[in-house]
Design brief:
By secondary structure, this protein is an alpha/beta fold. It has five domains: 145 residues, Arc Repressor Mutant, subunit A; 86 residues, Tetratricopeptide repeat domain (Serine Threonine Protein Phosphatase 5, Tetratricopeptide repeat, Alpha Horseshoe); 147 residues, 3-Layer(aba) Sandwich (Rossmann fold); 70 residues, no CATH class; 84 residues, Orthogonal Bundle (Arc Repressor Mutant, subunit A), CATH 1.10.10. Helices cover 49% and strands 10% of the residues. It contains 26 helices and 16 strands. The strands form five sheets. A five-stranded parallel β-sheet has the order 10-11-12-9-13, sandwiched between helices. Strand 5 and strand 6 form a beta hairpin. It is globular.
Length: 609
């Protein structure tokens, strides 16, 4: 039984082409929000923001459950899996290929734009025409919340681009300014009067129809609109078309093909700017972090006229990358010009990505650089990135940064770009403080273990599960790693897993943290010997005096080394002059000490007895 959804106009859901009776108000608004995020779990907090203008009432969560129940019942069909699921603290709507008109529009429009860029207007035109037919004459419904409004605005912008591409294809294919093409462009400009390419296309079509007077009047109308609304004059391309008409040029320049610019007296083809969508699908379960997500989303969406930089930092395995990705996905509608995701290599042992390669990778993501000369240095590469991003709304997610130099100098002076950086060490992010990501509290740790291992296994052995969370120190990476042990061995009990983790010979290996801690350790420099010595410190905070006695270093050098451990997230302050290292980190340091300490040299534990 075929189910289809339409949101490019009045909202409709049909089963075998027969309309379903959608409930008015917030249930339908909830459906639209879920359709715009099809296949992704939308958190309850996000749905509340979308469905209630202003603060949500105390009954909002209960109301959402009621709306979800209505929609689940409405969309149900015999012998078909449920469409709407409660998942990871939110709701996810399953939508199949070809079932949502907005998704079909974006697919057809992207294929059409790609065909046109490849010089195949005969292929592009029917694809773009099919995409545009999906839009109803009426506009989509008003949106309750900011994310839904942004998503619908993005769809309208893509419809505008598709209309212009279709008109250009028709001109490429020899359209002589037919009434159908002129009507399309007039209607398009009535809705989008500030789009210069549309004015140019209309002028070109009027010239093709032999009506130069109408084309000249169109230029004057464009001047009035642009001056009245934006206080600007037309750009050089539109002005050049106008001057060609005044010269009675029999072949005035046309905007129907690929644009060109002048460089040193010759025509140079402009390479098309791609729109990358590189954010990966989050496969691992995610729980909690509501305050952190709100802070990151608020900071990222603050990008308007000037770019913003937002950073999140924390120790190995604490879930910085998962948090950053979840925040990026939550705001992707705010960045219609592209979203880039790049791992800078700071989370595991090895050589992090050099700054010039970071800039080159950004360039490759946003444009086809084949045949283009390589930047001669870091400064030039960064300058090209800034030129590329100027005036655009692009989100750059640079994950696992090892050094501030990797992310410096990429944002332009103006435009709605945002840079989200995750790292072990705190990095400056403009006016805002870097966000420290802490281990999960016990309740959220249990929820993550439930999501990874199953509710039954946790609820049947809550005490043992709580012990597992504590032994993993609330680190999401460790909890997911030990949950795999349960998945691989259905005969394993939670109590048996807790016993395994209590054995210090096995705990570090089971949590999967060793490769991540190795990356932090290898960047300690002169603080590395002190870190190894601290592997024997089994209880309580460590004072600077005690650390100095262990290493034989002057007190000032010891304090600097301890501060380096704090910066690397291998230790944390525990009061004036006192420091603490977590048990998993201590076990790693003890492993290093056993391998790397010279024969006969004792560790911190022996010195303190």
């Amino acid at each position: 039984m075929a189910l289809t959804f339409q949101i490019l106009g009045p909202v409709r859901a049909c089963r075998d082409d027969r309309p379903l009776c959608l409930p008015a108000g917030r249930p339908t608004a909830m459906l639209v929000t879920l359709l715009l995020h099809a296949g992704v779990a939308v958190p309850v907090e996000r749905l509340c923001e979308e469905l209630w203008a202003g603060p949500a009432p105390t009954s909002a969560v209960a109301n959402l459950r009621s709306h979800a129940s209505q929609l689940r019942h409405l969309l149900a069909a015999p012998d078909e899996p449920a469409r709407l699921h409660a998942q990871h603290g939110g709701y996810r709507l399953r939508v199949g290929p070809g079932e949502l008109d907005a998704a079909e529009f974006e697919r057809l429009a992207a294929e059409g734009q790609a065909a046109r860029a490849a010089g195949q207007p005969d292929v592009a035109a029917p694809l773009l025409e099919r995409a545009l037919v999906l839009w109803s004459a009426a506009d989509p419904p008003p949106a309750y919340g900011p994310a839904t409004a942004t998503a619908l605005d993005r769809l309208r912008q893509r419809r505008s681009a598709a209309r212009e591409a279709y008109a250009a294809c028709q001109l490429d294919l020899g359209d002589r300014g037919s009434p159908a093409l002129l009507s399309l462009l007039h209607g398009h400009l009535a809705e989008n009067p500030l789009r210069e390419p549309a004015w140019a296309l209309l002028m070109t079509a009027q010239c093709r129809a032999g009506d130069q007077a109408a084309a000249l009047e169109t230029y004057r109308a464009a001047c009035r609109v642009l001056a009245g609304e934006l206080g600007i004059t037309p750009g050089p391309e539109l002005t050049g078309l106008y001057r060609a008409l005044l010269r009675h040029d029999p072949r005035p320049p046309s905007f129907a093909g690929r644009p060109a610019v002048r460089a040193r007296g010759r025509a140079v083809e402009v390479r098309p700017v791609l729109v990358p969508h590189e954010l990966p699908c989050a496969a691992a379960p995610f729980v909690g972090r509501h305050a952190e997500l709100t802070r990151l989303r608020t900071a990222l969406t603050a990008a308007r006229e000037h770019p913003v930089t937002v950073t999140a930092y924390g120790m190995a395995g604490v879930g910085k990358s998962a948090l950053g990705l979840r925040a990026a996905v939550a705001v992707l509608e705010s960045f219609p010009d592209g979203q880039l995701h790049l791992d800078l290599g700071g989370s595991v042992a090895g050589t992090p990505l050099p700054p010039i390669e970071v800039a080159a990778r950004v360039l490759r993501s946003f444009r086809d650089t084949a045949g283009e000369p390589e930047p001669i240095g870091l400064a030039e590469a960064r300058a090209r990135v800034r030129s590329l991003l100027f005036g655009r709304r692009v989100l750059l997610v640079l994950d696992n940064a090892a050094d501030p130099a990797q992310v410096d100098g990429l944002l332009p002076a103006r435009g709605g770009c945002a840079l989200l950086v995750t790292s072990r060490c705190p990095m400056l992010d403009g006016d805002a403080r870097p966000l420290r990501v802490d281990p999960l509290p016990p309740g959220d740790g249990l929820d993550l273990l439930r999501a990874a291992a199953g509710d039954r296994r946790v609820d049947e052995e809550v005490e043992a599960a709580s012990a597992v969370v504590a032994l993993c120190e609330g680190l999401p990476l460790a909890l997911r790693s030990v949950a795999r042990r349960l998945a691989e061995g259905p005969h394993w009990s939670m109590a048996r897993l807790a016993r395994l983790l209590r054995d210090e010979r096995h705990r570090l290996a089971e949590t999967g943290l060793r490769p991540r801690l190795t990356a932090s350790y290898r960047r300690l420099g002169p603080a590395a010997p002190l870190f190894r010595q601290l592997g024997g410190a089994r209880t309580g905070p460590i004072t600077a005096e005690r650390a100095a006695a262990l290493t034989g270093l002057p007190p000032e050098d010891t304090v600097r080394a301890l501060d380096r451990l704090v910066t690397a997230q291998l230790a944390e302050p525990a009061g004036p002059g006192r420091y603490r290292i977590g048990e998993l980190v201590r076990l790693y340091a003890a492993e290093l000490a056993a391998v790397e300490l010279p024969p006969g040299q004792t560790g911190a534990g022996e010195s303190s007895r």
